[in-house]
Design a protein that fits this description.
alpha+beta; 9 helices; about 70% helix
C-alpha cells in the first residue's frame, strides 16, 4: 500500500513538472510542437498516474452455515477502496513523451528543408546581393561626378559627344544593375528564409528524428504485451470482524503474441527508412534536385569568380599606371575604366559572397 501511494505521488509530481516545463517553452516553439507535446502530455498523464478505485456491494460472508456443513454466510455489505498502478504505464508514458519530442524535431528539420526547397537556387543570394549593393552604393556617386565633369568638358569643347554617350551608357549599366539588385532583394524578402545550417545537417536531423519516432512507436507496441500491476487498499466487510481490513496484490501478465513483434517492428523500421529515400512527404525529391542544382552552381561560380578576380586585378593595374598620365584622351579612357572596374568589383563581390554562402549551406566550405 505504501509503495503504491509513493509511486502515485511521484508520478503525479512528474506529470505536473513536465507540464509546467512544456508550457514555459510553448511560446518559443512552433505550433506543431505545441500540438504534439500537448497530445503526448494528455496521453501520458493517465499512464504515469495511478488509478483510484472504490466499490460498494454485497457478498456472502459471516458464520451462517449452509447445507452440507459449508459456511456460505449471509448477505454482507462490502466496501473496497484503494490504488491501482501499472508500472508498464510508466514506461509507456515516458515513451510517448519521447516520441512527441522526436516528432517536434522531425517537424523542425522538415520545415527547414521545405523552406530551402521553396527558395531553390536563390539560397545564399541575400548576402550576395547585399555585398553587390554595397559596392554599387560606393561607386555610383563617383561615377556621377565623372559624368558631370565630362559634360562640362563637352560644353567647353574638350570632349566629344560620342565620348559622353559612351560614358553615359556605362553609367546607365551601373544604375540598371543597382536597380535590379534592389528588386531582387525585395523579391527574396518575401520568400521563406532557410535556417543558418548546412542543408545536409538538416537532412541528417530529419532522418534521425524520423527514425526515433519509429523506434519509440515500436517500444510502445512491445510494451503493450506486458502488464505489471500493483493493487492495494482498504477492504472491509461491514459487521464482520477483521484483524486488518487491507489488501495488496502484484499481478504480472504477458501476451504470447509478443515473440512475433521484434521481426515485424524491424520490417516496419526498415520500410520507413526506405520510404524517406523514395519520397519525404513531397520534399525528398525536391531536396535532391536542389542539391544537384546548388552544387552545379557552386562549381560554375567558383570558376567565374577566378576569372573575374584575374580581370579585376589586371584592370586595377592598368588604372594605377594611368594615374600618372594627364592627357585628355587618357583621362577619358581612365573614366571608362573606372566604371568598368566598378561593375566588375560588384560582380566579384556577388560571386565571392554567393560562393561562400553556397559552400556553407551545402556543408562544403572552402578557404
Amino acid at each position: 500500500m505504501r509503495w503504491a501511494v509513493a509511486w502515485g505521488v511521484l508520478a503525479g509530481l512528474g506529470v505536473g513538472a513536465a507540464g509546467a516545463q512544456e508550457r514555459a517553452g510553448e511560446a518559443r516553439d512552433p505550433g506543431y510542437c505545441a500540438f504534439v507535446r500537448g497530445v503526448g502530455d494528455a496521453e501520458s498523464a493517465v499512464l504515469l498516474a495511478p488509478d483510484v478505485f472504490a466499490s460498494v456491494g454485497v457478498v456472502n460472508a459471516g458464520e451462517t452455515g449452509g447445507g452440507g456443513g459449508v459456511p456460505l454466510g449471509g448477505p454482507t455489505p462490502r466496501l473496497t477502496a484503494g490504488l491501482d498502478y501499472d508500472f508498464v504505464g510508466l514506461y509507456r508514458g515516458l515513451s510517448i513523451r519521447r516520441r512527441a519530442e522526436a516528432e517536434c524535431e522531425r517537424y523542425r528539420a522538415l520545415s527547414a528543408l521545405r523552406a530551402a526547397a521553396k527558395r531553390g537556387v536563390d539560397v545564399g543570394a541575400d548576402a550576395a546581393l547585399a555585398a553587390r549593393a554595397q559596392v554599387l552604393e560606393a561607386a555610383l556617386p563617383k561615377a556621377e561626378q565623372l559624368l558631370a565633369s565630362l559634360r562640362e568638358d563637352v560644353r567647353e569643347g574638350r570632349a566629344t559627344v560620342e565620348e559622353l554617350t559612351a560614358l553615359q551608357l556605362r553609367l546607365d549599366g551601373l544604375r540598371a544593375l543597382a536597380h535590379e539588385t534592389v528588386k531582387e532583394r525585395e523579391r527574396l524578402a518575401a520568400l521563406p528564409r532557410p535556417a543558418e545550417r548546412p542543408l545536409s545537417a538538416w537532412l541528417q536531423d530529419f532522418r534521425a528524428a524520423d527514425d526515433r519516432v519509429e523506434a519509440e512507436s515500436a517500444s510502445l507496441r512491445r510494451a503493450s504485451a506486458w502488464t505489471v500491476r500493483l493493487r492495494g487498499g482498504y477492504d472491509e466487510l461491514i459487521n464482520v470482524r477483521q484483524d486488518v481490513p487491507l489488501f495488496g496484490a502484484l499481478t504480472v501478465s504477458y501476451n504470447l503474441g509478443s515473440p512475433w513483434q521484434p521481426s515485424a517492428n524491424e520490417r516496419a523500421r526498415e520500410g520507413r527508412r526506405r520510404s524517406l529515400e523514395e519520397d519525404v512527404e513531397g520534399v525528398s525529391q525536391d531536396v535532391a534536385r536542389l542539391l544537384r542544382e546548388l552544387r552545379a552552381a557552386h562549381s560554375e561560380e567558383e570558376a567565374r569568380l577566378r576569372e573575374v578576380s584575374v580581370l579585376v586585378t589586371d584592370l586595377e593595374g592598368q588604372l594605377k599606371d594611368l594615374q600618372a598620365m594627364e592627357t585628355a584622351k587618357v583621362r577619358r579612357y581612365r573614366d571608362y575604366l573606372v566604371l568598368e572596374l566598378a561593375r566588375l568589383r560588384a560582380d566579384s563581390a556577388w560571386l565571392k559572397t554567393h560562393v561562400a554562402e553556397l559552400g556553407r549551406f551545402l556543408g562544403e566550405e572552402r578557404p
